[in-house]
Amino acid sequence: MIEVSSAQLQLWVAAFLWPLVRITAFLVAAPVLGHSSIPNQAKIGLGVLLTLVVAPTLPPLPAVPIVSWAGLGVMIEQLLIGLAMGLVMRLAFTAVQVAGDIIGLQMGLGFATFFSPDSGGNTMILARYFNMIAMLMFLAFNGHLMVIEILAGTFQSLPIGLVSFNPDAWNMLARYGATIFSAGLLLALPLVASLLIINLTMGILNRSAPQLTVFSVGFPLSLTVGLVLLMVLMTDLARYLEKLFSETLQFLQSLLLSMAAG
Q1: Which of 149, 145, 123 lies closest to 36, judged by CA?
Q2: What is the pLDDT of residue 9?
Q3: How confident is the model at residue 211 (pLDDT cuts 50, 70, 90)?
Q4: 174 within a domain of the structure (yes/no)
Q5: What is the dihedral of CA 28, 29, 32, 37, to 10 degrees?
Q6: Which of 3, 98, 193, 256 has a Cα at 20 to 30 A from 245?
Q7: 1 lies in some domain
């Protein structure tokens, strides 16, 4: 008869529970794997599957009881690591959505909104469209597989029970939030500059010829030129997204190294 001691049972549970918390937290915050259209059962199943794959490769676990304050601290530690990784990836997709919002406002499509279950509020149609393209490109570049590989590697660089974090890592994460505005504006800049010139021209013409009203001429012109420029932008969007995702993954690895340095 096989006898299992309480210490051995606790070790088995810890080897499954603590990695599961980190992986599940990442899946909740990740932009593609944690999409609202994916059922929660599928997310939990994927988390359990990844945990079963990663668990045998874990370094030695800390001798900490699960039901204790120290065990709660270890669980919160895993939660923060997973959420930080998911947040970094979500920033890249948010930058693309911001570009869609800026372009939509400049084209005069600020009224073209609908309820988005992702954000829980109204989202511009162009922002939603750009987000869908970004998700498809992310899957085409095998970005989801790269992220899962990085996630599995964190159990070696950031072993369970690290106890302390480097404060500079959280400072890096906060500063990287500026990517939402810099990358988003960089993507929207060609259309914004062109449409701004058109709006300024229409303003001058309206002053010189009042019969050329903004609503009768300016709005159709801005919308038509914006659609044409969008067609031109789509030809180079894949290269831009590839560069954006590559920089995001590089920053994610730098962030994990900075956490480990603490």
Answers
A1: 123
A2: 67
A3: low
A4: yes
A5: 50
A6: 193
A7: no
User: For residue 152, is it within any domain?
Assistant: yes
pLDDT for residue 116 is more than 70: no
Average pLDDT over residues 172-181: 85
The parent domain of residue 194 ranges over 6-260
CA distance 200 to 246: 37
pTM of the model: 0.82
How far apart are the C-alpha atoms of 115 and 128, rounded to whole Å?
A: 10
Mean pLDDT of 202-226: 73
Domain tally, the chain: 1
pLDDT band at 118 (very low <50, low <70, confident <90, very high): low
83, 29 Cβ separation under 8 angstroms: yes
Q: Is pLDDT of 164 > 80? A: no
